[in-house]
From TrEMBL, chains A, B:
It is found in: Cytoplasm. One of its GO terms (molecular function) is kinase activity. This is Homoserine kinase. Catalyzes the ATP-dependent phosphorylation of L-homoserine to L-homoserine phosphate. Its EC number is 2.7.1.39. It catalyses: L-homoserine + ATP = O-phospho-L-homoserine + ADP + H(+). Its main location: cytoplasm. Residues 217-286 form the GHMP kinase C-terminal domain. Keywords: Amino-acid biosynthesis, ATP-binding, Cytoplasm, Kinase, Nucleotide-binding, Threonine biosynthesis, Transferase. The keyword Chloroplast does not apply. InterPro entries: GHMP_kinase_C_dom, GHMP_kinase_C_sf, GHMP_kinase_N_dom, GHMP_knse_ATP-bd_CS, Homoserine_kinase, Ribosomal_Su5_D2-typ_SF, Ribsml_uS5_D2-typ_fold_subgr. Residues 70-149 form the GHMP kinase N-terminal domain.
Length: 309, 309
């Protein structure tokens, strides 16, 4: 095998109450990366599409190539690759766009080389793509993009992530409004301290979310989708956030919050039909004030990256 | 039925990472309460044993009678009862002593009256006993004493608690050193703010503990038994804390932390044999510096209060 085409999924990080520790993968959208072996030892980004010219071809700065460089350094494998990156989701959308590219690239190279490492071991390299994109090596998008499913980043030092089973009737609606929020800004407006009261309330919801997912207790999931720490601060960066959230809840969503750093907003629903209704309601709530928005409805993607060619 | 004798269990609150939200019940120790119907409408505490004379017979101030008064007020039942309270565990030990008494009393009265309320509905009344004991109506001891098992207090407003299944080979060792820590002091030394970094790390462990318990993943339970927020502060109130903790870990415990506000220290182990070894190691660590300590080894009590006569 000399070339491979990989799809890696978009991801929703934070998931209301789990700032920096929760994330899950969706079936769509996602990025596509094609990697081809070269006869020399060069790493070359040959094509980038879907980025409106915003991403660099510099392999030391692009989120698709940095994890590959780190991977080759770690495994001491000396091979060259051409990389095509096809962005199939908006940049800076809060959907883990950079993570999808990071994961797709390093997953592709690992496959082409005959899988010297198991998927989970690709995580540290993929996280280096996050560092390029947002300044720090977060795992809450990368880990679910790589492993699929609903993932908890229990600890960063040492790095420890695990998957949580999710109920089969849990569907997600993601609405991406056509506005820009910079991930670095979204981090900078957060406070460095949290009140003990909010910490306790948030821990209660984190526990509730895990138990709710594992027991397929939709009411417990709904009750636990309250964010006392991040949403109240970041919501101000997203025009119409509370109107859109209320529209989702009114349409039957279990809960609704910001996807990652925003501006995308996600909602959980029980059943595909409700999730679709919720999408229409959220989209139309944005459109009422003239903001164009795309809606995606999906189950929880359990697979992570996949070979599509 | 004119009289009843109830056992209600000791409880371990906080459970390392779950300050104010986690608690579980043990098989022993526990308090015993005897309640007898009176022919008049009076509520009278007729006998208290095991308290070294420290508890009041004033029904408006004793943790065993206050929940009963609130219960009768709420249900608008006009009956009189004699109450005997037999403390079978040390006061101010961090083992939920006041909660056991609160739960035993109101559970007894509800049984004697033919169970007008289900157990879970007794929680708000039992919490009023906590308010008398420590100034605020916490639920992390009362809820597991009442419901049995490992309990999460997801939210206080509205009050929402749920049980988490625990693995059958999970045993607890509790060591109570003969020193005094006042619960109010133990609360007052806590800061009102938590760093964002510690909040995130603690949430990761809360998620890990719930998933570890539900999946019987003992390694995940062990990894998650790290408290970044409370233990570092309260440990200074307990002489030899870190030596005792290290002794527990060296003897094979999964993890070890302060029980409630202390001074009791608890450890989780996989298997009864390890839990017993851990108890010997912890006790002897205290005794090395001349502190007398009692050790208890138990499974997780799934039953809560029980009728014993």
């Amino acid at each position: 095998m000399d070339s491979i085409k990989i799809f890696a999924p978009a991801t929703v990080a934070n998931v209301a109450c789990g700032f920096d520790i929760f994330g899950f993968a969706v079936d769509a959208p996602g990025d596509e990366v094609i990697v081809r072996k070269r006869t020399d030892k060069q790493i070359v980004i040959t094509q980038i599409t879907g980025d409106e010219g915003k991403l660099t071809y510099d392999i030391s700065k692009n989120t698709v190539s940095v994890p590959i460089l780190k991977y080759l350094q770690y495994t001491q494998i000396s091979e060259g690759f051409d990389i095509e990156l096809h962005k199939k989701m908006p940049l800076g959308s809060g959907l883990g766009s950079s993570s999808a590219s990071s994961v797709a690239g390093v997953f592709a190279v690992n496959e082409l080389l005959g899988k010297p490492l198991v998927s989970k071991d690709l995580l540290p390299f993929s996280m280096e793509g996050e560092r390029v994109a947002c300044g720090s090596a977060h795992a809450d998008n990368v880990a679910p993009a790589l492993l699929g499913g609903f993932v908890v980043v229990r600890s960063y030092n040492p790095l420890d992530v695990f998957k949580v089973p999710t109920p089969s009737e849990l569907f997600v609606t993601i609405v991406h409004p056509d506005i820009e929020v910079n991930t670095k800004d979204a981090r900078h407006i957060l406070r460095n301290e949290v009140s003990m009261k909010n910490t306790i309330a948030q821990m209660g919801n984190v526990a509730g979310m895990i138990a709710g997912l594992m027991q397929a207790d939709y009411q417990l999931i709904a009750n636990s989708m309250i964010d006392f720490i991040i949403e109240p601060v970041r919501a101000i960066l997203i025009p119409e956030f509370f109107e859109v959230k209320n529209a989702a809840l009114d349409a039957g969503a279990l809960g609704c919050s910001i996807s990652g750093a925003g501006p995308s907003i996600f909602a959980f629903s029980k059943g595909l039909e409700t999730a679709e209704k919720v999408g229409i309601a959220m989209k139309s709530s944005f459109e009422k004030v003239g903001i164009i928005a795309n809606a995606y409805v999906s189950g929880i993607n359990q697979e992570g990256p996949k070979i599509i060619g």
